[in-house]
Amino acid sequence: MAETMENSPREKCGIFGVYGLEDAASTLYNGLFSLQHRGQEGAGIVVSDGQNIRSSKGCGLVSEVFSSRTIKQLKGNIGIGHVRYSTTGDSCIENVQPIIVQCIDGTWAVAHNGNLVNADSLRQMYEESGSIFQTTTDSEVLLHILADPIYRHNQHRIARALAQLRGAFAFLLMRPSCVIAARDPWGYRPLSIGKCGNAWFFASETCALKQTGAQYIRDLKPGEMVIVNDSGLHSEMFVDKQQTNLSQCLFEMIYFARPDSTVFGHNVHNVRSHYGCQLAREHYVEADIVIPVPDSGNSAALGYSRESGIPLDYGFIRNHYVGRTFIMPNSNQRKQSLDMKLSVLPDVVNGKRIIVVDDSIVRGNTARQRIHSLRKAGAKEIHLRIASPPTRFPCFYGIDFATREELIAAGCDIDEVRRFIGADTLGYLSIEGVLSAFKNRNDYCIECFNGKRNVAGTQKRSKSKVECTCTI
Ligand code: SF4
Description:
The chain is α+β, with helices and mostly antiparallel strands. Helices cover about 30% and strands about 25% of the residues. Strand 20, helix 14 and strand 21 form a beta-alpha-beta unit.
């Protein structure tokens, strides 16, 4: 079940950027704070006043990394920020972004959300020709491509560099006097544009725009890069539109994004609520109450309850102040921490037939522990309903379930998963069910459910002619 760092799928990173805003750092802080759910390992901010670049970063939560004094010292009206959860590269301060480098033509900073599937080969190529990398993240390869004389002297430099990358990426780049935003041609990761007065905003999720006072304008198109500088906002496509098939990540909808965000044009709460309705149609069972596993099971449980007519109740209470379980040094402490994180309400579940709704099962250990807690509290029957299909294949695009061995549904059939977890019945939403929320069903990635390799993992490097006219 979600809510634990060992057992839920994890994605790396949230990014946030502003251009043309006095005291940019405090807005960047608030933007990153709103994206904290996308990464808790580290956070960084870099700002520019048009000439001087100032930055601060560290390991931990946004509120731990930046003091109000630090934010005051980050003077500038342009900036980008990042919250990190590592899926490539070690968990250390060097890998906390934005990455800042001094190139022959000045300073570049980069913040990245996603995973580049050809980063290893690009890195090897640059290392063999003498480049020295300062981090172990995949994100840094973009800076090396940009510094490569082959691209540096090309008037379409940034577009040509972006077109070399395969996999999932939402990038924010900063130069002393501009911000550049780019989204991969397959659209795996979300990236939205906002505006407030004359200032431009960029955010991984729209919730961060809303909470920083910006008005949502639109999403970046897959394969688009946007440059904002003192002459305004300019948009360019860095790949030929014709060759891009969409592959938007369904786990953004299922688990990662906040319910108050609009992702890929859909409100996340509404999509999850639809999944709950669909789950009730596909896996109805007689019961006394429906309970969500908070928080990512909330909307789907509501949908299940509405569709089935079975009342919704709160069987788990979440303690928001429990520390991150993945840093607990031993399994006993982690188990205690899990128990503290979600506590069962015996008065609600005792003697009842319960439908438990959660977003996904990855390894299965946490689901097993939750079911055990419900039994201990006196639940008569426990029916687990999962608002996504079984996760049977690893993800290569930035979600942290990297091997099949980590996935319980990869090696076990559904009844074996049920027995391991200890539920009376177990029902997963079908792939058809998860796609039923969307008009254009082919626009979504389902690789971790069906194992069929996506375009980004198979397509050769782009040789398309770029339309970009950027000369930065
Ligand atoms: S494989 Fe799954 S988790 Fe990875 S991008 Fe595709 S839908 Fe998202």
